[in-house]
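User: I'm putting together notes for a lab meeting next week and I want to include a structural view of one of the chains we've been expressing. I don't have a solved structure, so I'd like a prediction I can at least talk through. The sequence is below, exactly as it appears in our construct file.
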Amino acid sequence: MNLFQQIRQIPQDIQEGFRTADRVQQKMINDGVGYGESILDPRFKQKVAEQGISARGTPAKFLGAYVSRMLIDAANDGTRTYWWRYNHPLAIAQRGLEAGVNRSWLESPTARAAVALGIAAPAVAAAGTYDITNPEEQFRPKGFAQSYSAPGTDDRRASEQPVQEMFERFFLGRTGDPLKYETAKKEIPSLTPERYGNYMNYLYNDKGLLGLGVIKGTTENLQGTPEVRLLGFPANIPMAAGFAAGTTGAVLAGKGSKRLGIPGGKTPMARAARGLAGGLLGSLSGVAAGNAVNEQIAAGNRPQLPTVNDYQNISADRI
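Assistant: Thanks for the context. Below is the predicted structure for the 319-residue chain, given as structure tokens.
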């Protein structure tokens, strides 16, 4: 085929790729796979490759196939569905948890849910969106105000709408705004004006990665420990350690590990019970380890004041 014929063939190849992709996607819809999926979904690429279409071998057909895919993606919110699903730190952590606590070793969905809750409860509590030791103030975290405090009040630690406060804290993961410095200092004695100012600048002015305001992090939050925020929702080391250690503990306890000498449950009920115990213990251990790491980081971030001996060694002519 000469060059002129190849050029004339391009529109036909694009159309053929488009039609082939349309048939492939219709089959994916019928099979319950792919409707509304992202253009980035590798399953679609695999399916069209089975029809002899690839970027290197048939570039024009490949282009036509992906034009079809792009239209379906746009019309059915394919890529945006992933964004809506994973735009919260807890949603991302939950996906990792689901990958570990799966039906390959725990078939009952009720049992999987129980194990998942055992892992998530300590880890979520460590995320910083609520303080489990503060039930009288709707579990308000230290250093942060209630979202529905009385208008014009200086001390925003009391709420006029406790039900709405609880809903936003536990279901939406909202912490509220930081208290003013003097009030926050009462709850966090190590808080300094410099750290408070830096955190306020990070919270309200920092646009984060690529300047998009989507994800950003700081080495010092109000408590003096590292924090990452995804669309304003916080995540920290204890939370990540709790989910990771909890999922690992659940899998090892439920499935068992000959290499580590951990016997697995022989019946579905035994696997579920061992998985729940392993997940809860692992999550608590991970949170404790994360808190220990945070404490070391916070200690390093605290201002180092001179000791009594340092003051005694200062000569009068240096005062």
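A couple of points you could mention at the meeting. The radius of gyration is 27 Å. The chain has two domains: 3-84, 89-132+189-301.

User: Perfect, that's what I needed.
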